[in-house]
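Project outcomes to date are best conveyed with an example. Our students and postdoctoral researchers have been running inverse folding experiments weekly, and each run begins with a structure described purely in tokens. The record below, which covers 276 residues, was selected by the lab manager from last quarter's runs and is presented without edits.
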């Protein structure tokens, strides 16, 4: 009986030790089995069996099985060793752009904020519930803000129940209700200026707010701009994947000072993605 008990204890200890085996490091991975959590522009966010999430980017020659959907179990074959300095850029913005302001956040309320720029001048900006990143910024933070003035610009996606479904220049999908006085543009032109009555015309609107001390907000100089890739030098040199979902200033050129907002997920370059 005692011998049997010892066997049970040993078996249990074996199971515990197996369950505590650490996952392989990202540098050791040759393939990943996991579940597609979402499509992110031209990449996939995949969760492996250990609960880790990766951004999987297919290389130009990658073999991708068609009709992949969120929730599918997939096998990702890794094409290149993981490069720690390779990141996916969620946004690339110019400090010198006319629709940019940056400095210390002096005050904020539900409809406006005030910024003191490096020269000591204060600027008031309007905002609303659609302003990205507003909740994270606190007085005293140094922030970078992308602005615009009315009218509001975006691409009409659909017409539904008396209103427009519009994708704005930051990729947000918003709904705008039409009024009797709404001036309707040419329906053949998918790019429209949509007037927002609640926006102040005398104060720039804060559409995106980035806290400069956020570890995912990086400053540097653009070294190179290749097809789909940027190289930025700052506290460290970064190779950036710039995809379809990346929000960026089109006129960014090498040598210019930029703010780069990167995804927190490690990037995996895949040679093949197969449905299991």
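After processing, the design step wrote out the following sequence:
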């Amino acid at each position: 009986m005692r011998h049997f008990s010892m066997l049970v204890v040993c078996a249990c200890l074996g199971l515990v030790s197996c369950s505590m085996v650490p996952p392989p490091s990202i540098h050791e991975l040759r393939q990943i089995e996991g579940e597609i959590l979402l499509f992110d522009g031209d990449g996939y966010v995949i969760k492996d069996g250990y609960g880790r999430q990766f951004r999987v980017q297919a290389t130009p020659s990658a073999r991708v099985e068609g009709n992949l959907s969120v929730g599918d179990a997939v096998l990702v074959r890794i094409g290149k060793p993981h490069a720690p300095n390779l990141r996916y850029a969620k946004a690339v913005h110019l400090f010198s752009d006319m629709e940019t302001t940056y400095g210390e956040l002096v005050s904020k309320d539900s409809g406006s904020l005030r910024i003191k720029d490096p020269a000591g001048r204060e600027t008031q900006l309007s905002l609303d519930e659609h302003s990205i990143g507003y909740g994270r910024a606190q007085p005293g933070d140094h922030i970078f803000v992308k602005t615009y003035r009315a009218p509001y610009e975006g691409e009409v996606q659909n017409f539904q129940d008396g209103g427009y479904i519009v994708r704005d220049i930051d990729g947000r999908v918003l709904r705008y209700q039409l009024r009797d006085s709404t001036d309707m543009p040419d329906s053949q032109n998918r790019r429209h200026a949509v007037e927002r009555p609640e926006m102040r015309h005398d104060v720039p609107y804060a559409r995106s707010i980035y806290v400069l001390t956020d570890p995912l907000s990086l400053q540097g100089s653009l070294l190179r701009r290749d097809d789909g890739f940027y190289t930025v030098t700052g506290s460290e040199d970064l190779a950036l994947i710039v995809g379809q979902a990346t929000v960026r200033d089109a006129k960014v050129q090498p040598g210019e000072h930029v703010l780069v907002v990167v995804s927190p997920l490690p990037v995996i370059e895949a040679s093949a993605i197969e449905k299991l």
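Confidence is low (pLDDT under 50) at residues 1-11, 187-193. Helices lie at 2-19. The training component of this project remains on track.
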